[in-house]
Amino acid sequence: MTSTATRQRPVAPARTLSSPAAAIGVLILTGVLSLAALLGPNLVADDLGMTMTMGMTHYMELLAVHQPRNLLLFMAIPVVLAETLAITELVILFARSATPAWVRTTSRIAGLIAGPVMLAIFLHLLVNAVVPLTLTGGWRGPADVIAVMFYLAGVIPLVGITLVELGLIGTDPASALKWHATFIAIFLVVAHVAMIFGMLDPAVLGYQMIHEH
User: Fold this and answer.
1) Backbone phi and psi for residue 60, each to the nearest 5 degrees, phi listed first
2) How far apart are CA 141 and CA 160, in angstroms?
3) pTM here?
4) Nearest one of 187, 199, 181 to 152, comparing CA atoms
5) For residue 197, which of 65, 122, 147, 192 is within the disulfide window of CB 3.0 to 4.6 Å?
């Protein structure tokens, strides 16, 4: 009688639950960035007196003014964090248990800071852009609204990734991996929708250009 040994496919090591120190660190970072976003100077204000002669959405105007500060803060940092997460996630999915430790560390660090960073951006733009534009009727048509709202929607998946890294979502390895990949995919979708509509001339979707103060 012969017995056949079954080979089991190597699985990815469990994502270690966050240590109390990591959780406290993320909480402090979130608090500091959120307070800075709410109480700090208005980074949205357009000191260059740009007009709608170029036919741009507020999304594009936000990135165009105060170069390179706004481009770095509102575009480069969130996108670099998301792309880092996407690339390291692919390595983890393909390499499984053979994934180098530095890849997992990079993914973990990016995941822990992505949520606090995007939450601070969300709060700053909510207070300094979304609320004033809504109260004054300053939106530049549907493309403008779609671009800004989809950009702000990126806070949900990035905060979700941070919660996964803290062990608050997907407490077992398989579900944590799925949640992580799902949140990354959601962020990439909403970010690209924001870019597409943000680069669109608002007049294409019916906005009539008027003089803005």
Assistant:
1) -70, -40
2) 30
3) 0.83
4) 187
5) 147
